[in-house]
Design goal:
- The protein has 448 residues and is an alpha/beta fold.
- It contains 16 helices and 15 strands.
- The protein has 3 domains: 40 residues, no CATH class; 260 residues, Type I PLP-dependent aspartate aminotransferase-like (Major domain) (Aspartate Aminotransferase, domain 2, 3-Layer(aba) Sandwich); 129 residues, Aspartate Aminotransferase, domain 1 (Alpha-Beta Complex), CATH 3.90.1150.10.
- Helix content is 42%, strand content 13%.
- The protein has a 7-stranded mixed β-sheet with strand order 3-11-10-7-6-4-5, sandwiched between helices. The chain has a 3-stranded antiparallel β-sheet with strand order 9-8-13, with no helix packed on it. Strands 12-14-15 form a 3-stranded antiparallel β-sheet.
- Strand 8 and strand 9 form a beta hairpin.
- The longest helix is centred in the first third of the chain and has 27 residues.
- The protein binds pyridoxal-5'-phosphate.
- The site of pyridoxal-5'-phosphate (PLP) has 14 residues, from helix 4 and helix 5.
- The site of pyridoxal-5'-phosphate has 14 residues, from helix 4 and helix 5.
Length: 448
């Protein structure tokens, strides 16, 4: 038996031990502890690259949805679509399970298939090319601009043939592409007369389709118009690292010319994205069970749990998220401005306002190997960075299809010296100072 005195002593010792552990954990959070494990430095206090903003508002809204009895596509998705319409100033938005699915849905709706050519930038994420390949068409890759990372208009011009059915410009890092120039080009009599439609939809449009891959650029502005209101069709991504996230998810914004009924098209795309079933799960409730299948559709609907996150994210997007992201970008640029070894990203000018998605820094006169050493050194100093993107012709699959990086010299030059810096809502000034210091010191060490 333990007597009363021993029991109290035990409790006191336990209390001291618990307090000791708490103090150690607090210290751990405040200072960077680097220790060696299997010969590698593990930094317990790394600045992450782009963690999502998961706060009580998001958590409570998701819990509310889980408890509501409706978790798949339902009232939240409907409301999120309506709010996205209002936000983009358009009348027709369809939420999807990802941007990839949204892009592919549109290509399939437009009848893209074997023998068709779709122009895309060589400098993008693989999704832009893969959706074209899934449809059996050919992604015609073109080089990008020197001063930013977006598709070059001159190169588009040279790539258009009578097989070209669509162009997928990508707003890399959140900076809008040169949409007016693209529009002028595809509407020019010479290019229009080259267009050879394969079906009634293509005949109705009478020209190349502009399908914007705006995975990075929700909230960006081009000539006073929000992205979504510019291209024929725009696709956003709400993947976990994006500015506005639903964990996974996307949205298709329909902005086709007057010959098309964007509202009716949305209803059809909804069916096409749900196995071709003419009633969704919510509509089938209340005894209204009988449905038909009108085409062999896909399965790409967004859930109400995802939309719950989206509703919270969208409500605070312009006045909170974008403001914070702009502050981060400005902070980096103001502090890097005098370092003549660096090329700072373009993110705002008279015509364009970025969504401040990726801070894509470049370092002058270095090769890929030096860039990679700089990245290693930055990481060892406790900062997570990234590279956006490896031009597609560098990747095995596309290389094996015959694409060669020598045909995309600007894409390679931009890539070889690029480092994307952390940017996320919860970043503090202290963190930014640490990133700037780590980058500067690492560049000094490599370029000494
Ligand atoms: C340029 C670009 N396009 C498309 C996608 C695909 O987005 P999702 O993951 O929502 O399918 C991404 C994803 O990162 C991207 O960066």
């Amino acid at each position: 038996m333990v007597d009363c005195h021993e029991w109290h002593t035990c409790q006191r010792v336990l209390k001291v031990f618990v307090n000791f552990c708490r103090t150690i954990m607090k210290i751990n959070l405040k200072i960077t502890i680097i220790f060696s494990m299997f010969g590698k430095n593990i930094n317990l206090n790394m600045i992450p690259f782009a963690p999502p903003r998961i706060d009580d508002k998001i958590i409570n809204k998701v819990i509310e949805t889980l408890k509501s009895g409706w978790i798949t596509t339902g009232p939240n998705v409907k409301l999120f679509e309506e709010k996205l319409q209002k936000y983009t100033g358009t009348e027709s938005v369809l939420c999807t399970s990802s941007a990839t699915d949204g892009l592919e849905l549109i290509l399939r709706w437009f009848g893209i298939g074997k023998g068709d050519e779709i122009i895309i930038p060589a400098y993008t994420y693989c999704a832009t090319a893969n959706v074209v390949i899934h449809c059996g068409a050919i992604p015609v890759m073109v080089d990008v601009n020197k001063n930013d990372f977006n598709i070059s208009i001159n190169n588009i011009k040279n790539a258009i043939t009578k097989k070209t059915k669509a162009i997928i410009p990508v707003d890399i890092g959140g900076l809008p592409c040169d949409y007016d120039e693209i529009s002028r080009l595809i509407n020019s009599p010479a290019v229009k007369s080259l267009f050879s439609p394969n079906n009634e939809l293509q005949k109705k449009l009478g020209r190349i389709l502009i399908l914007a891959d705006s995975a990075h650029s929700i909230g960006a502005v081009y000539k006073n118009k929000k992205i979504g209101k510019i291209a024929d069709i725009t696709v956003f991504s709400f993947h976990a690292v994006k500015n506005l996230t639903t964990a996974e998810g996307g949205a298709v914004v329909l902005n086709l010319p007057d010959e098309f009924n964007n509202k009716e098209l949305k209803d059809f795309l909804k069916i096409l994205g749900l196995h071709g079933q003419n009633k969704d799960a919510l509509t089938k409730t209340k005894g209204n069970w009988k449905y038909d299948v009108i085409t062999a559709g896909y399965k790409i609907n967004m859930t109400d749990i995802q939309a719950a996150m989206g509703l919270v994210e969208l409500e605070r997007y312009d006045n909170d998220t974008l403001k914070k992201r702009k502050w981060i970008f400005d902070y980096y640029s103001e502090n890097f401005e005098d370092d003549k070894r660096l090329i700072l990203p373009v993110y705002n000018n008279e015509e364009k306002k970025s969504s401040y998605h990726l801070y894509m820094l470049r370092i002058k006169d270095i090769d890929e190997e030096k860039r990679n050493i700089i990245i290693k050194k930055i990481t060892e100093k406790g900062v997570s960075v990234n590279v956006h993107f490896q031009p597609l012709p560098l990747l095995s699959f596309y290389k094996n299809l015959g694409y060669g990086i020598k045909d995309f010299p600007v894409a390679y030059d931009n890539y070889k010296c690029e480092i994307s810096l952390p940017s996320f809502y919860d970043m503090t000034e202290e963190m930014l100072k640490k990133v700037i210091d780590s980058v500067t010191k690492s560049v000094n060490e490599v370029l000494k």
